[in-house]
Amino acid sequence: MRKILHISKYYYPFSGGTEQIARDVVLSLKNEYIQKVIAFNDEKKDKIDNVDGIEVVKCGCFTKIAAQSLSISYERNLHNLMEDFNPDIVVFHYPNPFVAALLLRELKKSKAKLVLYWHLDIVRQKYLKLLFTSQNKSLLARADKIIATSPNYIEGSKWLQSVKTKCIVIPNCINVERMEITQEIEKKVLNIRAQNKNKTICVAVGRHTEYKGFSYLIQASKFLDDSFHIYITGTGELTEKLHEEARGDKKITFTGRIDDDELKSLILASDLFCFPSITKNEAFGLALAEGMYYEKPAITFSIQGSGVNYVSLDKVTGIEVENRNVKKYADAMRLLAQNEELRVKYGKAGKKRIEENFLSTQFTKNIRNMFKSIL
Question: Which CATH superfamily is domain 3-173+359-374 in?
Answer without folding.
Answer: Glycogen Phosphorylase B; (3.40.50.2000)
